[in-house]
Each structure stands twice: as C-alpha cells, then as structure tokens.
Amino acid sequence: MPEGPSIVLLREAAQRFVGRRVLDVAGNSKQPIARLQHRVLKQVRSWGKHFLLDFGPFWVRIHFGLFGSWRIDEATERAPRLRLQFSRGETLAFYACSVRIVDGDVEAHYDWSVDVMDPRWDAKAARAKLRRHPDALVADALLDQDVFSGVGNIIKNEVLHRIRVHPESRVGALPSRKLAEMVEQARVYSFDFLAWKRDFVLRQHWQVHAKTICPRDGTRLSYRKHLGKRQRRAFWCATCQRLYK
C-alpha cells in the first residue's frame, strides 16, 4: 500500500499535467469517468494516502488500497481503472485502485490538520485525540488515518523502533514524553521516508521492517503477521522496544 510520502512523489510527478486538457478517458471504473473528457486539470493534491485530481466543479479521489499503482507515460497490458490522455500522447494511468468522482470544493472536504505531511499538521490535536483512546494499541493508533493521515505500516514499524516502544503498548500507558515523541516522529519519519524514496535508497534505511536482526543491539527481531485490530504486519525488537501496559 503506498504511504503518504509516495503519494507526495506522485503529486510532484503529476504536476506536469496541471493546466492541460484531458483529450481522452478510458478505464474500467464504474464511476462516470466520461465527465473528465475535455476537462482542464486545475490542480493535483494529496491528503494522506489519497491522490486528488481537481477539475474545478468536481474532483477525483484515487485511493490505492493494498495493490494499487500508477504509471506516467508507460504502456502496460493491464487494464487501467482510469487512464487520462493529454496532448503529445502523454498519459496518467491508475491500476487496481478505488476511483471516486466528487462534486464540490476539495479543500472543504478534508481535515488538512491530520495529514502528517501537510504544513497545517497539528501535533497538539493529534496528542489530544490519542488521549481519548487510552486502551488502543500504539500499533493501531499510528495507522488511524483520522489522527495520522498518510502513515502506513512501514512508517508505523520504523517509528516505534526509533522511539523504542513495543507495538502492543497501550496509548494510555505511554509517558507524556513518549506520546509526544511518537506524534513528532510520525511526521519526522514521513519526511525522512520521502527524502530516501526520492533518492531510491528507502529500503537501505529500514531498521526493522522486513528485517530479521535489530541493528541497535543484534537481537533477533520479533514478527507477527497480524497484529492489533488492523491486523497488519509488525516487526519489533523485544530487547530495546519497551512494552508499556
């Protein structure tokens, strides 16, 4: 599943299409995608894991789920969910994703203060939301898109290792400084992720995700295929990541 930083990279790459007219629309989406024909793309946005195409009176939300992907000017035999063709034969295509066309102003539809990569990110509000759910596992809390929009499983695993907190710790059991550290690092690591992915070195910086040995103390990492209510993969070090109950 693409995480917030990957969607930011898509937004940057798709900026080239802003101000240009859609000459042809194709795809197997059940949405009325013919509405996009001959429309001018006003802007491209991102909110967490959502990629947004703003056409003025309406906009298109792309959510990639677990298996979605995109291609720019690349031919493939796979059937696209949505493909937009612009002048000079340039294309923007989306595969195995959710497509939704929404009328109205995209700006008013989202709470931008919960997007960890948005300038309007509100860390204080995030801490307040977390305190209202003291029994939640921190592994679940970090994946809550109403608190940390854009944070995915890789960021979750790496942030918890970075701050030395066991994924099965309870939010309400964390000391105030640890709660603040978790909120802060959700944003900091997201921007680290973006920089590393832009330089094609992201995997080289993983400390625990999809790894077997903790680089901090040499302990064999613990692994669970399904952890917490969200049933996501978890990697952690039982030696250096403390369990707060």
From TrEMBL:
Highest taxon, organism lineage: Bacteria
SMART domains linked to this entry: Fapy_DNA_glyco (SM00898), H2TH (SM01232)
Gene3D superfamilies the UniProt entry points to: 1.10.8.50, MutM-like, N-terminal (3.20.190.10)
Keyword set, alphabetical order: DNA damage, DNA repair, DNA-binding, Glycosidase, Hydrolase, Lyase, Multifunctional enzyme
GO process annotations (BP): base-excision repair
InterPro entries the UniProt entry points to: FPG_cat, FPG_N, H2TH_FPG, Ribosomal_uS13-like_H2TH
Pfam families in alphabetical order: Fapy_DNA_glyco (PF01149), H2TH (PF06831)
Catalytic activity: Hydrolysis of DNA containing ring-opened 7-methylguanine residues, releasing 2,6-diamino-4-hydroxy-5-(N-methyl)formamidopyrimidine
Domain (Formamidopyrimidine-DNA glycosylase catalytic): residue spans on this chain: 2-93
Keyword Hydrolase assigned: yes
Any one GO molecular-function label of the UniProt entry: lyase activity
Similarity comment: Belongs to the FPG family.
Protein name, entry field: Formamidopyrimidine-DNA glycosylase H2TH domain
Source organism per UniProt: Solilutibacter silvestris
